[in-house]
Amino acid sequence: MMVAVVICALIAINLIALFVFARYVTPSSDPRSFGLRFISPPQRAVAVVIRSIKSVWTHYFYLVSTERENDRLKEILADASRNDVQCMEAEQANSRFRKLLDFKNSDAVRSVAAEVIGKDPSQWAKTIIIDKGVAEGVTRGLAVVVPEGVVGQVIDAANHYAKVLLIIDSNCAVDALVQQTRAHGIVKGDSESRCLLKYVSRKEPVNVGDNIVSSGLDGVFMKGLQIGKVSGIVRNKSGIFQDITVTPFADFEKIEEVLVLLALPPAAGIHR
To answer: Right CATH number for 111-261 from 2.40.10.340, 3.40.50.720, 1.10.150.120, 2.60.260.20?
Structure first.
């Protein structure tokens, strides 16, 4: 407000001075020279103020325009970032499905691919929910696997959903072999990320790093499916069995898709 008053005052003084000294038309006359000396400073002040206001006004609109452009560029960047994330997620999903498809085609057994849509939130049971059920041929007792290895067994099935008990659950058991030495035992769940190979005689040669595979003798899991790797051995002085810890090949925290084996090959196991 004060700036506007000052500008108006300067303009008024400038106009009055121009009116008063305009009648002195002789360039060399002293009144004319005096008039120029008198009106020049106010004119210069007015010009400076006007230029300053014009500059501020121009910069204001420039900044507003720049801010709008920045907002628009941020939106474009956010959209590009979202698209990049979606493309990466689709690429990873395609890679996982290709692995499942390759694994499915490599075995002479019917199977159906399913997506993991839920997990048991309790600490008492280690289960997952998949989006395939009786309508797709998934029934209780079927084996569930991923390309890396055995996941678990279907324990309940509805029309389009099924519950799978993971091999890390203490209630799940898989008849198994030590691949290198053919020592026989039963894999049972022990914790969030490991299993135990039980009932292996202390006399059987077993080494850390040996692979554990399904034996096919339980009639659920076909022979030769990967289960895990021996990660620890304790041979007690008393007792007839070794305490063998097995780390599964499947990463149960990251499983998103699985294969349900709908049938075993004719000679893969005993009667179910």
So the answer is: 2.40.10.340
Q: Would you tell me how many other CB atoms lie within 10 Å of the CB of residue 178?
A: 22
Residue whose token pair is 């979606």: 86
Find out whether 212 and 177 touch, Cβ atoms under 8 Å: yes
- If we measure between CA atoms, which residue out of 210, 217, 208 comes closest to residue 186? 217
SS3 at position 241: strand
> Cα separation of 262 and 129, whole Å?
17
Query: Does the predicted model carry a pTM greater than 0.90?
Result: no
By percentage, how much of the chain surpasses pLDDT 90?
38
With CA atoms as reference, report the closest residue to 243 among 204, 193, 192.
204
Question: Hey, what are 124's tokens?
Answer: 């008492």
